Amino acid sequence: MIDSETFRSVLGRFASGVTIVTARDDAGEDHGMTVSAFCSLSLQPPLVLLCVDHEASMHDLLLKHPRFGISILSSSQEAYSRRFAADESNRFDGIAYVRGDSGVVLLEEALAHLECAVREHHDAGDHTLFIAEVERAEARQGRPLLYYRGGYAQLER
Length: 157
Ligand SMILES: Cc1cc2nc3c(=O)[nH]c(=O)nc-3n(C[C@H](O)[C@H](O)[C@H](O)COP(=O)(O)O)c2cc1C
Description:
Layout: H1 4-11, E1 16-17, E2 19-24, E3 30-35, E4 38-42, E5 47-53, H2 59-64, E6 67-72, H3 78-83, E7 97-99, E8 105-107, E9 112-124, E10 127-139, E11 145-148, E12 151-154
Antiparallel strand pairs: 1-11, 2-3, 2-6, 4-5, 5-10, 6-9, 7-8, 9-10, 11-12
The chain binds flavin mononucleotide (FMN).
Flavin mononucleotide (FMN) binds next to β3 and β5.
């Protein structure tokens, strides 16, 4: 069987963008985490998928509160990627954001915003695969933040 180090090293060759996934709990408190395991799944209906670690604090929230937001980070937002993956007491402190129609946080200056509703979820190893319908989406001009081989990168073109 392939070891974790090889798996990481090989899969790290697949460059991705970086997103911040956001949702609200019963008390109306905001939660957010960095997610790069995100991609487009279907056009009709418009579906995306994301993979969330069973251990992530938002995991159960996404099962319980199916509406969530996705902010696709721009090249100037590396600090947000780090912050939403770090042990910070309030990840939203001092951050500029707007609220979507469903009330979820969407980060300002992000390259794109999506508002989604979970349609299916499947346990897969140590993660859960969430399939969600995109209910609203908007994009702005800019350059993406990239993640490649465990580090951040910029698009050169
Ligand atoms: C660039 C980057 C991409 C990440 N992608 C994912 C991901 O796709 N799924 C996931 O569950 N965790 C991912 N993580 C890790 C989580 O963001 C991190 O474990 C976070 O702290 C989890 O939230 P929690 O501390 O509130 O549990 C990623 C982290 C980074 C820095």
